[in-house]
Structure formats: structure tokens, C-alpha cells
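Hey all, sorry for the wall of text incoming. These are the two entities for the joint prediction.
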Amino acid sequence: MAIGQDEIEKIAELARIRIAPDQIGDVTRRITDILGMVDQLQAADTKDVEPMANPLDAVQRLRADEVTEENRREAFQAIAPAVENGLYLVPRVVE
Amino acid sequence: MHDKSVAQLIAGLHARQFSSVELSRCFLDRIGRLDGAINSFITVDESAVLAAAGAADQRIAAGGAAPLTGIPIAHKDIFCTDGMRTSCGSRMLDNFVPPYDATLIGKFRREGAIILGKTNMDEFAMGSSNESSYYGPVSNPWDKRLVPGGSSGGSAAAVAAMLAPAATGTDTGGSIRQPAAFCGITGIKPTYGRVSRLGMVAFASSLDQAGPMARSAEDCALLLNCMAGHDPLDSTSSELPAEDYCARLDNSLEGLRIGLPREYFGEGLAADTARHIDSALRELEAQGATLVEVSLPHSHLTIPAYYVIAPAEASTNLSRFDGVRYGHRCKDPVDLHDLYTRTREEGFGAEVKRRILVGTYALSAGYYDAYYKKAQQVRRLIKQDFTDCFEQVDIIAGPTTPGPAFALGAKSDDPVAMYLEDIYTLAVNLAGLPGMSIPAGFVDGKPLGLQLIGRHFDEARLLNVAHRFQQATDWHLQRPPDPAGEES
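and here's what came out:
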């Protein structure tokens, strides 16, 4: 399936990845190649075949709703790019 | 010491022929002298290695040693190591020092094994050549102009070049087996859920599995004994108890039925590779196995299904890298949107971005049924092919790759050509089966791998077949030239 440059821009926005204007053509071409290969799937007869999400058809295991983890906020925030007073800093979101 | 097997090193440590400190120094020295030529390690912490080795020596002296106590083991830089940088081969995690250990790392630490270092890899394990690493490509020790395979290329090259006795890797679509084949070593991808994924940076969560890479099946079994088992912290970890993977290594192959999928021996397989695979199969036949032709009729849909499912899962998993909590963050973001988009533009390499974009597309409104749902339906057909085969045979065998290692740069500009390299390995991950690669010959001095595929949780049988093969052949004992040989 051919995919347009505008569609790549839309997907990149959904994926929150900036693509430099001079690279968008190249990215579009390669993704078109990949989707072209993937399109072989369309010829497969999958009528009445149940989709498979887990190779062992396992179901999600749930644990008891108990507190098991200690609070390690300081250790986790020590590796963050920017923190202050125990909070993660990001550019202002609300004026 | 550097050319000894893990089994021999264990015996040597216990017989006090050498200490763990001496053994560790030997490998640190080799890494220091030789790794410049192949680039298989990203991080080595000498003082931590020697401290752990000293503690291991004390434990051995006190009589409380576990099987791997004192053995240096290299780990793919995808496993979180508490206090030691875990980059996943990416600029995104170049500054990431995890505050915890992966379950697998914790198991090795408790056993007293030495974390020798963190090995190079394709960025976020996405690649078949180790050329997508932020830390530069790895060279194949057999010929430095060749790729080592990927994504666990650093682990494979380090083990082949005897810079480590053994290593860990991960395999989402062939990332243990293909580099093992290209570098002439032995590697096993266990059944999905056999080894914990906790603390292993996620690529495609329904496919990812960790396993050992070493110079023999016996050494892989020794490592798997430490790695396998249920982990309550990984919700997809199997509750089936692990077994002693060394116990059945010597079993006879008499009566073993080996299926040869005709789709794995047809068009696309290089003739000289096919000849070596055939000789290897004759050896197994000589030991009493029966060769049976089987069919995996949906094989041609493996690559398309994989390249929807794996990127879809990757696009979801890699959304966590946002420049807020850890890892790379762009400079001077003007707003939150700029922070996200520029951090991810700078932090991810080209192949990782491509897969995120393909996955985002496959999961987006209007395309979900045509791509993601369709691929999951095909996935079931592929798994059913194997289920049908395993009604007739005990294991499946064939080539690991269509041919030997290719030249650095040969396919790095053509993603689809690179994807085709994994034609024989991807289906095993889609079906969640155990698969391994063992050395089976050379074409023009380049190693080849024989792939063995088993039923779910039948790792012990694969290791048994591989071990018996290695008792009768010496492909796994061939060694590449000294990595620094040409320079010195």
C-alpha cells in the first residue's frame, strides 16, 4: 500500500517523533517498502481464525491487591533529567 | 584459561587450579587488549569485576559455592544492572543507570557469577547485523569485514573471540540464534516465558525471550539452569518448574524423529549452506535419529506477520521514553510537545524510529483490522503449522540462516533486505517455541549454524541433541584468529 508523505507526518505526530523536513521523503520511501512487504498478509485466508496475542494462549495472571513495593522515589528521581521538591519538572503545561 | 569451556572453568576453580580473581583478570586483560578490534563491549567495570571475583573466591574457599560461582559472564546491555549503565545500544539510554537488577541479573549475582561487562547490541535489539548500535558496529571475529549478526552481536562476538566464556542474549526474532550462527557459537532461545523478562528492556513483549550464548551446548545448559524459572514479577513468566538442563545431555538419539520442513530447504537457501546442513543432519541420522520431511505451509507469511506484530508492540513499549523520568532529554524544550518529539528524534536511531512509525501505523484507527488483527490471525496459523508437525516428529531441524555472515554495510541501507535474513528464525518466536543454533560447518571460512526447534518447554531435548552432535563433531571447537592479530 502506498503511503503519502502527509500520512507519515500524521503518524510521526501520533508517535511523538519529530522528523526533520529534509528526511521526510526518505522515511516515507522506506516505510512504503516495508508496508509493501507486509501487504502479502492480505492474501492469507484467515476466515474464522481467532487472533493470537500470546504464543502460549496464556491469560493475564493477577496478584493479590497488597502493598509489596517500598517507596524508592529518591532512587528513581536521582536518574531523572530534572526534578525539584520530589516532582518531575517539565515545561509549563497550564498557563 | 580463556579457551576453556564453562564446565572446565568450574572444575578448575573447584580444584583450585586458579582463582576467580585470576580468571577474571585474564578476561579483563583480553578485553583490554583485543576488544578495540571488534567493539563487542559497551561497558566494563574492572573494579566491580575484581570485587565480585574476590567475594566468589571466598565463597568457594568456605565451601558454599553454587555451580557458576566465580565464573565471569558477559551480559547483553539490555538487562538492567543496578548501579551500572544499561544503554540498550541507544543514545536514549546512554546516561541510564538502573536503580534495580533484572531478575536474570539478580539470579547470576546470587549464584556468585561475575558480571564481566555489558555487550554491544543493535539499538533496542532491532536489527540483524549489530550496525544499528549507538556505540558503533561490532565486527565478526572470523573476519572483521563481516557483521557478527544481531541483535545480540556483541555477546556472540565476545564469546567467539574468547573475551568471555559465555554470555546472555535476547531473541525476539532470531537475535540469539542468528549471531550464534554467524560467529560459530552455540545459543538457545528458550520457550516464551521460560526466563523472566523483568528488567530486560522491552522490544516486543509477546516475542522477547532471554537465553544463553556459549561455545557448547553443555555450557548453555549450565547457564540456563541459573536463568530459567518462574518469576512472580513477570506476569508472562511460566509457572511450570524449570528442570536440570544438564541431566539429559548424554541421552541417546536412538529413535528421535527429526522433521525437516521443506520450506526451509528450498529457494533462498545458499547451495553450499544446504550441503553443510545436510551433512550435519546425516550425523544425527548416524546416531539413530530418523529424518522425516514435514511442511510448515504458512512460512511465507512469517516475515510479514512479524513485521506488523513486532513493530506494533515496539511502538507501544517505546512510548515510555519521553525525556521526563530517565534517559535522554533534548536541550531547552519550548513546551511539552517539543520535549517529547525532539527527545525522541534525538534519542532514537533510524531503524528504531522506522519500527515505531510502522507499528503506530498498524495500530492506528482504520488500519488495525487490516494489519494488526490480520497479523495475529496469521500468527495462529503459523503456530498451528508447528503443532501439526510436532504430532509427527520430536524436533524440527534446518538452517539458522540462508547463508553465512554478510559484509558490514551490505544491507544496512535496505531494511527489507535485512528483514529477509531472519526468514528461518522468526516463526519460532511467533509460535513461542524453543530454538537453538549450533555450529555446523564453514563456507569460505565463515561459520554456519544448524537450527533445532523443539516443542514448548522441550529445551532439555534440544540441548541433548546439540550435545550429542558436539560429542561427534568439532565445528564448535574451531576458533577464530586472534582479534588483534592483523594489527599487531
